[in-house]
């Protein structure tokens, strides 16, 4: 084998190696999608960091905090009787739980909590900052829907709430705030886990 052939084969090998080792995009979706996911994640982390302060400022029931819920069965019964809806379920992306479903459920959950907190804000102050962050977060999720061309699946983002009729006194208002913030915290953790998946998602 002559020298020219050897050099040619080596160049081919090096070229192929470079192609295989070249970095690929973190996501099969546009860069703007990944960037918006990162921005949305930052807002969710901000909400989580502020929830303890918001809870302390709005809930004065002794012994009740985000990390400790005495009389658990009692509050579970109150949660059911007051009609506080559960968070939309976020799952691992699959053929049965698509990107469209995922983003739509994120949007529905964020809108739901903003609606509940708006209602509770009529009875006490201290929730406006969280509501503002949720509205900002919803703007980013709507951008994700636009970038990924997610259709509207008809998921109800503004469920009928019976909660207003249940807020008869300060105690029940504070319990409703506690339950809502507790659920919101869990939903935020689900969002962060989902954002990790979306940042490396390949359709």
Automatic annotation (TrEMBL):
Residues 1-21 form the signal peptide. One of its GO terms (biological process) is positive regulation of myeloid cell differentiation. The keyword Magnesium does not apply. It comes from the Eukaryota. Keywords: Signal. It comes from Nothobranchius furzeri. GO terms for molecular function: cytokine activity. The gene is LOC107390300. This is LOC107390300-like protein.
